[in-house]
Design a protein that fits this description.
Elements (H helix, E strand, L loop, with lengths): L3 E2 L5 H6 L12 H5 L1 H14 L3 E3 L7 H4 L3 H15 L5 E6 L16 H13 L4 E7 L2 H12 L4 E6 L10 H14 L3 E8 L4 H5 L8 E6 L15 H14 L4 E4 L5 H14 L1
Helix pairs in contact: 3-5, 3-11, 6-7, 7-8, 10-11
Length: about 270
């Protein structure tokens, strides 16, 4: 079974390196202040073994960065493409309009805003549109529909949040099936603690498309990430192995992890293939 290795987070990596990521722009601030730092992070993940690289467009919406949103979106894609070798793929990130841990803030009609972002990313030439970190199924489906309409390959990833309680596995499965019906070509879960991700991965089995996970490091006490323990990347890989055992073929990492986690995943999963 061939494993496609995704990359890891940009936002928490920037913070680890001392780059300010203030709200509401968050990681997009570095596109203004220090774009070379973003490019170098992409290079680190490519060197570690990732072959799908997500653009730093999680917060390049007008509501977060103002009228420069289009320029910053284009800059983010360009940085990803320049840092990552062929035949690696670029995934344009489409995130929730509001807070990815506050489904109650999801707007009633998110389709127009997601359409703007999907079309902008498609115009920039991304290989994949990744609708990611959605705790609200309805908004995720609006993003998927907008992405699919561009003609670009579309993936969707749901999150149950840092406590694993924003969505239940059966809700993730139902949302994933609806997304597939709309044209999504892969389904994932992300930004759930690695120690709690298996039950959500299991909910994605048998839907007829590739599926996977890119989890966060969980609480610092778990020793998986947040630069707390050098054994953390191996602990993460242990969890990832259980997802692969369930049939997952799309594997990456999320908040609190870094290139070393991707390197260990590459070594472990490739050697066990």
């Amino acid at each position: 079974m061939k494993i496609t290795l995704l990359d890891g987070p940009i936002g928490t990596r920037l913070i680890d390196q001392g780059h300010p990521c203030p709200a509401p722009a968050w990681s997009a601030q570095a596109l203004i202040d220090n774009p070379s730092a973003i490019e170098e992070i992409h290079r680190e993940y490519a060197k570690a073994g990732a072959t799908v690289h997500t653009t730093n467009t999680f917060r390049t919406r007008q509501g977060s960065v103002g009228d420069a949103w289009g320029e910053l979106t284009q800059r983010a894609v360009s940085l990803t493409k320049s840092a990552c070798p062929a035949p690696h793929k670029t995934a344009g990130s489409i995130a929730p309009i509001a807070d990815c841990y506050r489904p109650d803030l999801s707007p009633d009609d998110p389709g127009v805003e997601h359409k703007r972002m999907a079309e902008a990313l498609a115009m920039c030439g991304v290989d994949i549109l990744l609708c990611e970190t959605f705790p609200h199924v309805g908004e995720a489906l609006a993003a998927v529909q907008a992405a699919v309409e561009t003609g670009v390959e579309t993936w969707v990833s749901f999150t149950a949040g840092p406590r694993g309680d924003l969505l239940q596995p059966h809700q993730v499965r139902r949302g994933a099936q609806q997304a597939i019906d709309l044209g999504a070509q892969a389904v994932l879960v992300n930004c759930i603690p690695a120690s709690d991700t298996l039950r959500f991965v299991q909910a994605l089995q048998g839907l007829g498309v590739p599926f996977g996970a890119y989890a966060n490091a969980g609480h610092p006490d778990e020793g998986i990430g947040w630069a707390q323990d050098p054994r953390g990347p191996h602990r993460y890989a242990d969890f990832a192995r259980t997802w692969v055992d369930q049939g997952a073929t799309l594997i990456g990492t999320c908040c609190g992890t870094g290139p070393e986690h991707i390197r260990v995943l590459s070594e472990r999963l490739n050697s066990e293939d």
